[in-house]
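Quick one, probably user error.
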C-alpha cells in the first residue's frame, strides 16, 4: 500500500488538488456541490493542520463506472478479500495524478482506455492502523480499445437493471447509487459503541 503525506502549505495544496482532481483539459468537471463537499473532505483528511504540527496518513484508491447505453462494465473479482462483481479500479501510485491513476487502473484491468472520467463520489473510513482510507468514485461513457480480462477477474457488460441479479462485492449497490445520483456524494464508515456503521450523505 502507498501512503501519502502532503507537506504543502494550504494554498499550494488547494491549487494542486484542484488541478489534479477537479479539472480535465483545463475545464472544471464538477458541480458546485461536489466541489464544496470534496474539498472539505480532503482539507480535513490529508493536509497538515494550520500549525503544521499534525498530519494524517492516507491511502488513496479509485473505482470507475464505465457505461454505454443501458449497459455497465463489471469485473468479477476473484480475490478473497473482496469477491464478487465490482467496477475496475485500484490504488493511486506515488506522484501520480488522480485522473491518471484511474485511467491506468482501468486499462490494466479491462484493456480499455477511458477519457474524461468524472469524479462523482467518495468513500472514507479508517484502517486498523488508524490511517485514513479514501476511495474516489469516477464514471465515464467515453472509451476505446478491445475489452479483455485480467488477473483481477473476468470483465463483461451487463444491463443496468440486472445488477441485483448477480453476487456483488461489498457495498457495490450503494457505490452505484452514489455514482448515479445528483444528490448523494459520500459513503462514510465509522465506529460507534465498538461496532462499524456506515451512512450515505
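Nope, works fine. Designed sequence:
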Amino acid at each position: 500500500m502507498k501512503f501519502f503525506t502532503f507537506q504543502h502549505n494550504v494554498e499550494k495544496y488547494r491549487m494542486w488538488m484542484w488541478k489534479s482532481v477537479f479539472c480535465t483539459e483545463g475545464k472544471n468537471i464538477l458541480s458546485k456541490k461536489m466541489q464544496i463537499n470534496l474539498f472539505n473532505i480532503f482539507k480535513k483528511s490529508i493536509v497538515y493542520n494550520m500549525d503544521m504540527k499534525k498530519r494524517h496518513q492516507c491511502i488513496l484508491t479509485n473505482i470507475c463506472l464505465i457505461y454505454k447505453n443501458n449497459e455497465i462494465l463489471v469485473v468479477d473479482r476473484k480475490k478473497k478479500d473482496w469477491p464478487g462483481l465490482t467496477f475496475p479500479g485500484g490504488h493511486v501510485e506515488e506522484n501520480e495524478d488522480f485522473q491518471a491513476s484511474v485511467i491506468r487502473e482501468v486499462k490494466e484491468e479491462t484493456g480499455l482506455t477511458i477519457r474524461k472520467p468524472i469524479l462523482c463520489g467518495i468513500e472514507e473510513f479508517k484502517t486498523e492502523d488508524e490511517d485514513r482510507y479514501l476511495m474516489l468514485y469516477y464514471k465515464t461513457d467515453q472509451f476505446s480499445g478491445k475489452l479483455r480480462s485480467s488477473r483481477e477477474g473476468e470483465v463483461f457488460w451487463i444491463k443496468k437493471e440486472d445488477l441485483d441479479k448477480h453476487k456483488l462485492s461489498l457495498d457495490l449497490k450503494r457505490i452505484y447509487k452514489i455514482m448515479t445520483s445528483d444528490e448523494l456524494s459520500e459513503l462514510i464508515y465509522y465506529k460507534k459503541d465498538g461496532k462499524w456503521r456506515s451512512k450515505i450523505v
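DSSP finds four helices and 13 strands in the chain.
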